[in-house]
Design brief:
This protein is an alpha/beta fold. About 35% of the residues lie in helices and about 15% in strands. It has 14 helices and 19 strands. Helix 11 packs antiparallel against helix 12. It starts with 12 loop residues before the first strand and ends with a helix. The structure holds flavin-adenine dinucleotide.
Length: about 525
């Protein structure tokens, strides 16, 4: 008997993942009963709680959704879906009001107006924030309280989804197992509507800012079920993760550079002015590559906030200050070592304007999805915005479909599926090797040779792990999708930089769609070539 044999009453709607996208969708669907799966206690294991900057929205005087959309289009390097950018920017203010109503304690001035931060590539201050750098934690705390107080939402903590159940092209539920318990009986959650909100894939890389729970399993699981994936090659690397050997690497928010902190090498020499006219405030991908080049050349790049912030550092950036104190660094007298880290996935499961995937009865929202909003490079703080805008759209669409066209059958919770051939991956080294491969060969700077090498390694790791957990297979699948699409895109654009194709090619000025079969064919060709 597993500890989940107790029957749950759900309303036919299953939400996989309990970050901002999953919880906001659950609250929007109330009072319709929903079941939310969370591998960890609510609030843990989600990128959402770690967001420092805030939510982008044109709510300031003189700003407009059109300007916000224009900045989004520019940041996305020519392949943002314009209709999506414009509609998301228009809906932003309403979603901020929703969050405020749900208790998010956004910073306000004495007259009650939102206090806004300015972040890279935004034409003006446009980021709604909480206590400087605590937006994610504060928003999630508020939503978790609401979720706990909403009787229609059942939260199942401690389970991880591993496989979709698909019948006649339609997702009819998900197989799951107790997180971290290889002896647990697999479970089957049947659902009339399934919402995948299980986050991005930063943790697939050895150096990442994402929680270790977020390792591409959402995209991998959907791809294995046959869903079309869009733009997987576009991974955003945050230039300034704090480089003290911690996994995941804590983030030194971009706002520090906005406040005047400088990037220097170990000798205190600034290196950004010779790279870009905007120096430290150049676009994220440019700064990330410059820092990467410094590291490759044997330097030790660091952020110097001594003159810009001095002793005010802790007051203005309490979260970052906490990380530094833990590491024994005093930023008023010391520099902060930094390195680029996998931070955000622009690609994901392809969805339409309602968040519908290519598989029937599967909706996807948050970082797991690819809506077309980000193109080749996400505009800062559009991640949380996309999560709430699309979670709301998905909730509306699911509500309509479930009440109009599907019987409101109560899904059962019953163990099924033959997992007997599956063992838990015994060798943690395999996960380590996978992540190192992604950082080495599918990272900030890519080329054909490295990408093919990565595809061959991923194929070997999969072969060697025959019979390993499906969770691991979801990771190797996600890695395959990213590397194969990166090999196919023979140009550089936004977050995707190819040293063998350093220019942007107008012929590639479009989004990419790829299925697992297509990615596996690219991988097989790379394996064949090396024989
Ligand atoms: C350090 C950091 C700072 C950031 N700062 C900002 C910012 O200031 N502004 C901004 O807009 N964006 C920011 N981002 C990005 C933003 O936080 C994410 O894009 C956003 O939170 C994604 O929300 P989500 O709900 O899709 O995913 P997440 O919040 O990552 O939640 C995913 C959920 O799915 C669960 N899960 C994973 N796999 C499974 C599985 N197999 N089965 C069941 N559940 C699963 C996870 O445990 C988690 O509960 C930041 C990200 C990081 C890491």
């Amino acid at each position: 008997m597993s500890r989940f044999d107790t029957a749950f009453e759900t309303g036919g709607v299953l939400i996989i993942g309990a970050g901002l996208a999953g919880l906001f969708a659950a609250l929007k669907l109330a009072p319709r009963p929903v079941t939310v799966l969370s591998p960890d206690p609510l609030g843990q294991g989600a990128s959402s709680a770690w967001a420092q900057g805030g939510v982008a929205a044109a709510v300031g005087a003189g700003d407009s959704p059109e300007d916000h959309a224009d900045d989004t289009l520019k940041a996305g390097a020519g392949i943002v879906d314009e209709a999506t950018a414009r509609s998301v920017a228009r809906e932003a203010a309403a979603r901020i009001e929703d969050l405020a109503r749900l208790g998010a304690p956004f910073d306000r001035d004495e007259e009650g107006h939102y206090m806004l931060s300015r972040e890279a590539a935004h034409g003006r201050a446009r980021v709604v924030r909480v206590a400087g750098d605590r937006a994610g934690r504060a928003i999630m705390d508020a939503l978790i309280e609401d979720v706990r107080a909403t009787p229609s939402i059942s939260v199942v903590e401690g389970v991880i989804a591993v496989d979709f159940a698909v019948a006649e092209g339609r997702v009819i539920g998900v197989f799951a197992r107790a997180a971290g318990d290889r002896y647990a009986t697999p479970l089957f959650f049947r659902a009339d509507a399934t919402i995948l909100a299980a986050g991005g894939l930063g943790g697939l890389y050895a150096v990442t800012t994402n929680p270790s729970r977020v390792r591409g399993q959402a995209m991998g699981m959907a791809a294995r079920a046959g869903a079309v994936i869009a733009d997987p090659e576009f991974v955003q690397f945050h230039p300034t993760a704090i480089d003290l050997g911690k996994d995941p690497a804590p983030l030194a928010t971009e706002a520090l550079r906005g406040e005047g902190a400088l990037l220097v090498d170990e000798g205190g020499r600034r290196f950004m002015p010779e790279v870009h006219p905007d120096a430290e405030l150049a676009p994220r991908d440019v700064v990330a590559r410059a820092i990467f080049a410094q590291i490759q050349a044997g330097h030790r790049p660091a952020l110097d906030a001594r003159a810009a912030l001095g002793t005010e550092f802790g007051e203005k950036f309490p979260t970052v200050m906490g990380y530094l104190q833990e590491a024994g660094i005093d930023p008023s007298i010391q520099t902060i070592p930094v390195a680029p880290a996998a931070h955000y996935h622009m690609g994901g499961v392809r969805v339409d304007a309602h968040g519908r995937s290519s598989l029937g009865s599967l909706w996807v929202c948050g970082e797991a999805s690819s809506t077309g909003l980000h193109g080749a490079n996400r505009l800062a703080s559009n991640g949380l915005l996309e999560a709430v805008v699309f979670a709301a759209r998905v909730a509306e669409d699911v509500e309509k479909q479930v009440s109009e066209s599907l019987p409101a059958a109560l899904p059962e919770l019953l163990p099924r599926a033959d997992f007997s051939a599956e063992g838990e991956l015994r060798n943690l080294w395999a996960v380590h090797e996978l992540r190192q491969t992604m950082s080495d060969d599918v990272g900030v700077v890519r080329d054909a040779e490295g990408l093919k090498r990565a595809l061959r390694k991923i194929a070997r790791l999969e072969r060697e792990a025959a019979g390993a957990s499906r969770s691991y297979l979801n990771m190797t699948t996600a890695a395959t999708m990213v590397a194969a699409a990166a090999l196919r895109r023979t140009e550089s654009r936004g977050g995707h930089f190819r040293s063998d194709f350093p220019e942007t090619d107008p012929a590639w000025a479009h989004r990419t769609e790829i299925t697992l079969d297509e990615a596996l064919a690219i991988r097989a060709a790379a394996v064949e070539e090396a024989r």
